[in-house]
Write a structure and sequence with these properties.
With 125 residues, the chain is mainly α. It has six helices and no strands. The longest helix is centred in the first third of the chain and has 33 residues. It is globular. About 9% of the residues have low confidence. The structure holds heme C.
Length: 125
């Protein structure tokens, strides 16, 4: 009886280990295959990030307090690129207020995509 319990425990912990390893490698694979920052598009990559993380406070129909800052539409976003705020607020650089306001910080992929788009000239593409 004792033997069966011990064997069961070994099998269970082995399986737990197996699953956790699998999950880990999947995450790495996902991160390296789905975060493509080589030629970032404003309309298909930047707008969805802003829509999901910023519009509720900085969109035209905002419901949160966005301090009157509008990040909807290319020219409005470009204003905050040109004064260096956009990249610094999403990175939470020292001296800047981290956005989304109140956190948490967005995923590395979102932050890197915005930084890459700015580095590539913040095109209206
Ligand atoms: C929950 C509401 C909320 C969300 C979501 C939010 N913001 Fe803000 N944002 C604010 C408020 C409030 C301020 C003004 C903060 C202050 O001056 O104290 C602000 C200020 C800013 C500023 C100006 C910072 C400064 O120092 O003047 C920028 C740029 C900005 N937000 C960009 C963003 C971006 C980009 C996102 C999405 C990644 C975002 N915000 C998400 C509420 C929000």
């Amino acid at each position: 009886m004792k033997k069966i319990i011990i064997t069961g425990m070994i099998i269970a912990s082995g399986m737990a280990l197996l699953f956790s390893c699998n999950k880990g490698s999947e995450d790495v694979l996902k991160a390296s295959t789905t975060c493509d920052t080589t030629a970032v598009s404003f309309s298909t990559q930047i707008v969805p990030i802003l829509q999901n993380n910023c519009y509720r406070c900085h969109g035209s129909g905002n419901t949160g307090s966005g301090a009157g800052i509008l990040l909807e539409g290319y020219s409005n976003v470009k204003t905050w690129v040109d004064n260096n705020y956009l990249v610094n607020v999403v990175k939470g650089s020292s001296g800047y207020i981290l956005m989304p306001f109140g956190g948490p910080k967005m995923s590395d992929c979102n932050v890197n995509t915005i930084a890459a788009w700015v580095n590539q000239g913040a095109k209206n593409n």
